[in-house]
# Entry
Amino acid sequence: MIVIINERDFINELNDFLNEEERKSLNIEQDENNNYLINDKHQADYFIKLSKQCEEEIEQIQQYIKEEKERLIHHLEQFELKEIEKIKNRQQYYTRALEDFTRRELEGTSKKSIKLPNGTLAIKKQQPHYEYSDEQFIEWAESYFPELIKITVPEPKKTIDKKELKKRSFIDDGMLFIDGFEVQGVSVEERDDKFEVK
# Structure
């Protein structure tokens, strides 16, 4: 029969054997409470060695536990992501059905929401998304609409007066116009109304 010996167990048994043999050779005594009595420097050095071995064992256990925690955390995180993904997919299925119902129910009416006991279904208008090329816009605005350029303080710097620009302009096919002039350095993405469950 083949006996498989765990390397760690073997090392521990070997250390225990060597420590016991060394303890015997040093004639270390014990008092009536089985506490060791240290009587010389050789014996003291022996116990220093034992104390450091204890520290090494503690470090080994801590390292082992740390590695096991990391391994388990990784598995738990993977499980969490997998389970949440399943639930999100199920929720998206419900949301699509609710959105379809809401758009059909509100079509042809001025209403924007449907209030129900468990929540409110709403169609929310989204603001357009603006993309700016500051340098291009400022160069254009200096010639046509300099009032749309702000100077920052304390360090003077030319910037776009975005609030005033949006107030004075209108959108047509992703482009911005002021008084018939196409605004340069700004592109606009009009976004569809957004469905929400509150």
